[in-house]
Amino acid sequence: MITLADLNALPEPEFVARLAGIFEHSPWVAERAAAGRPYASRASLHAAMCAAVDSATPAEQLALIRAHPRLRRTARAHEELTAASSREQRGAGIDACTVAEAARLDELNEAYTAKFAMPFILAVRGHTPQSIIAACERRLHNAAADEQRAALREIGLIAGFRLGDAVADTAADTAAGKAAGKAADTGVDTRT
Question: What sign has the CA pseudo-torsion 53, 59, 65, 66?
Answer without folding.
Answer: negative
